[in-house]
TrEMBL record:
One of its GO terms (molecular function) is peptidase activity. Residues 46-186 form the Peptidase S54 rhomboid domain. This is Rhomboid family intramembrane serine protease. The chain crosses the membrane at residues 50-74, 86-104, 110-129, 150-167. Keywords: Hydrolase, Membrane, Protease, Transmembrane, Transmembrane helix. Belongs to the peptidase S54 family.
Length: 201
C-alpha cells in the first residue's frame, strides 16, 4: 500500500483532532456555536463557517465513513493532481456545498447547523467517477461491485431523491452542492464552458 499523500493525511488528522476536542469538551455543542455552518437568518452565521464546518463531525460513525472515503478516493486523486491542486479541489467542494446548504435551508425552514466534510468527499467521488469511470468499486452499502461512474450516479440520485423528499438529519443538498463544485472545478481546469478556454491539464 503506497503511503498516504500529505494533504490527505493532514485533512484526516485535523478532522480527527477536532473530533477528539469535541469529545473532550463534552460533545460537539461548544465548537458548533463558533465553527458549524449556521443558516443565514439564524443570527449565528459567521463567514469563517463556510470552511470550518467541514472539520466538525457529529459522532463516531459520521467521522469514520467520511475519513474512510477521504482515504479511499482522496489519496489516489492527490497522487494524480499533487497537493496544491487537491487542496484547491477540496476547498471548491466544501465551499459549494456550504453555499448550496445556505440557499436550501430557508426553503425547508431549517435552523439547524451543518457539519462534516461530506461536501468535499462528494466532490472527490464525482472526480473519481469522471477520471476513472471503469474502475470497479465495492461499496459497503450495498456490497455490490459496480463501475465508478455507476457508483457516482447511484449516490447522486439517492441524495437528490432524499433531498426532494425532505428527509432531515442529513444535508443531502450540500452533498449535491459538493458534487457541483467538483464538476465546475474540473471544467475550469479543462477550460470548458462556462469557463474560458485554457491549456488542458
Amino acid at each position: 500500500m503506497p503511503p498516504m499523500p500529505p494533504m490527505t493525511k493532514a485533512l484526516l488528522l485535523i478532522c480527527t483532532a477536532v473530533f477528539c476536542a469535541q469529545a473532550l469538551l463534552g460533545g460537539y455543542l461548544p465548537l458548533t456555536a463558533w465553527l458549524a455552518l449556521w443558516p443565514l437568518g439564524s443570527g449565528n452565521f459567521m463567514p469563517w463557517q463556510l470552511i470550518t464546518y467541514a472539520f466538525l463531525h457529529a459522532d463516531i460513525g459520521h467521522i469514520f465513513f467520511n475519513m474512510l472515503g477521504l482515504w479511499m478516493f482522496g489519496s489516489e486523486l492527490e497522487r494524480l493532481w499533487g497537493g496544491k491542486r487537491f487542496l484547491q479541489f477540496m476547498t471548491a467542494g466544501v465551499l459549494s456545498a456550504a453555499a448550496c446548504q445556505l440557499i436550501i435551508s430557508p426553503i425547508f425552514g431549517s435552523v439547524a447547523p451543518t457539519i462534516g466534510i461530506s461536501g468535499g468527499l462528494f466532490a472527490l467521488l464525482l472526480a473519481y467517477g469522471m477520471l476513472f469511470p471503469d474502475r470497479t468499486i465495492m461499496p459497503l452499502f450495498p456490497p455490490i461491485p459496480m463501475k465508478a461512474r455507476t457508483f457516482v450516479l447511484v449516490f447522486g440520485l439517492i441524495e437528490l431523491g432524499m433531498g426532494v423528499a425532505g428527509m432531515m438529519g442529513v444535508a443531502h443538498f450540500a452533498h449535491l452542492g459538493g458534487m457541483l463544485g467538483g464538476w465546475l472545478m474540473i471544467r475550469y481546469w479543462r477550460g470548458q464552458p462556462p469557463f474560458p478556454r485554457r491549456r488542458r491539464w
